[in-house]
Amino acid sequence: MLLTILGGCGAWPAAGQACSGYLVEHDGFRLLVDLGYATVPRLLERVGADQIDAVFISHGHPDHCADLSPLLRARTMRDDPPAPLPVYSLPGALDAVLALDRPGLLADAYVLHELTAGGRFDIGPFRAQTRLLPHSVPNAGVRLTAGGRVLAYTGDSGPSPDRVELARGADLLLAEATYVDRVPEDSRRYLASARQAGRQALEADARHLLLTHLQPGTDTRAALAAAGAGYDGEIGIATSGLVFDLS
Ligand SMILES: [Zn+2]
Fold it and tell me: How far, in Å, is the centroid of ligand 1 from the Cα of 138?
């Protein structure tokens, strides 16, 4: 399983970067996990829009799904559009982004699969297992298994035992870490810190940890140090262009 980071900024895209977006490949199948602001230009530097096989979106915040719009436009506004793109999300999560275009324009560009959090299903060669994790809107963390490897991704979420269970024994935990150390009081239930992500990686016995969704301007060395205080595995920061081979 190969993970390419399209972007890892929380909230808005920093200069030269993009928000949450991850290309996950196995056996020639290309799955996009989240498509936040500015991820599509990073994607198109690598593969064509028509070469994507499926999309999974964790939740409906625009820093996780806004670029579904240009991806679908790039697939459908051409002479030889590819087959409709399977898109997996929680019910209603994509209503706003899919309503940006006039009714009907994107009708043949996608097939929406509304998922039930907690369920297991297959996306191509990937076995997907989801959990509803605490956020200000419904958010599905996902555990993807293929070829004997496991990638766990939190989406955005506050602390929860489910966040640990999702990552149990994973080869890689891709964990939202908006803050370094202290999460502001009004966000404490909905977002996490790098320090919490490190502790979760330890509790879950994950082999590697990638911190993502850092607020632009975050001191990345401080984030790595905070995560490393509770976890002695390898830790990285998700930035546009980073490739992680889980094999
Ligand atoms: Zn969010």
Answer: 9
